[in-house]
User: Which sequence fits this backbone?
């Protein structure tokens, strides 16, 4: 892959060393850490051009394909989600197109590893995509999926692979769906059903996210461990918020895991990250700061949490608990 000299795996960590003359950019590193679309990445302090991506509490695309028997339509939708994710993210970042560098979070959402370097040029996806699809075809197990596999192999053999063209063909393989008209959605009129194909526009996409984990027919102990995490929580006098993901966001934005709709709270105020050794709190450059047991946090610097710690987001106080099992 471009810009990458070597890549190796150590447990849940994916190590990447950049080519000579390519350096990790701190601003890009911070942007990546603040988005749930990306796998968390940190600098390796032992080498300037080496970094590692954290894949704990995830299931990599490679592991998932090797342990899962998919129906053909599920595989097509999965491919569409992967390709559309790569296409969208590639506008601003260099995506690592490896099956080990794409992973499912516990809620079924895909997360991608991207390089924390400044994007200075547009690069065609097709060559790197060719290698990724070769790996996917090699690892996937599909029930009665000869049609879609034949189509993919045909593209790969002829080297006639264009992301946009492939996406169009995959969408044509999906069944037609119905959607309500604009009159019904915005004015409450009687529905006028019309036939449309995937993908639905974002404005009418269902809020719930597809969870491919349900496809596993015979989950083994190893597979289940990939998705296990402690269920910590935050509480105050009125509310309790379960920490139900490995990256639990706190902020004023409506899609925050802990939404605090108050002027003193920043849109993206803080995040609680669950690592293998426990929970960490991180302030996201909030306007009115985050406090742990009365101590103001340094922005973007993770600090480990302990049971019964007091967290204050601006002037809003919560108590942190590691697990409901302890109470």
Assistant:
């Amino acid at each position: 892959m471009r810009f990458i000299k070597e890549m190796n795996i150590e447990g849940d960590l994916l190590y990447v060393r950049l080519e000579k003359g390519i350096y990790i950019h701190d601003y890009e590193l911070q942007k990546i850490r603040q988005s749930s679309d990306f796998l968390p990445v940190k600098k390796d302090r032992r080498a300037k051009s080496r970094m590692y991506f954290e894949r704990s509490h995830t299931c990599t695309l490679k592991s998932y394909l090797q342990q899962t028997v998919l129906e053909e339509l599920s595989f097509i939708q999965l491919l569409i989600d992967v390709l559309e994710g790569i296409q969208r993210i590639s506008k601003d970042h260099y995506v690592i197109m490896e099956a080990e560098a794409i992973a499912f979070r516990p809620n079924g959402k895909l997360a991608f590893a991207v390089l924390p370097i400044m994007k200075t040029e547009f690069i065609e996806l097709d060559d790197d995509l060719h290698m990724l699809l070769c790996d996917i075809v090699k690892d996937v197990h599909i029930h009665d999926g000869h049609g879609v596999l034949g189509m993919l192999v045909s593209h790969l053999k002829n080297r006639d692979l264009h992301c946009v063209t492939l996406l169009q063909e995959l969408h044509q393989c999906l069944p037609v769906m119905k959607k309500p008209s604009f009159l019904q959605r915005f004015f409450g009129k009687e529905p006028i059903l019309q036939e449309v194909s995937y993908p639905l526009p974002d404005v009418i996409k269902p809020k719930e996210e597809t969870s491919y984990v349900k496809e596993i027919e015979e989950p083994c102990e190893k597979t289940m461990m990939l998705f296990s995490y402690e269920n910590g929580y935050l509480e105050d006098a009125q509310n309790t918020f379960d920490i139900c993901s490995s990256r639990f966001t706190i902020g004023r934005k409506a899609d925050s895991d802990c939404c605090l709709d108050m002027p003193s709270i920043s849109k993206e105020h803080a995040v609680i990250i669950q690592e293998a050794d426990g929970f960490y709190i991180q302030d996201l450059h909030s306007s009115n700061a985050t406090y742990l047991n009365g101590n103001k946090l340094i922005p973007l610097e993770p600090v480990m949490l302990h049971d019964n710690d007091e967290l204050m987001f601006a002037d809003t106080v919560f108590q942190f608990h590691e697990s409901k099992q302890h109470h």
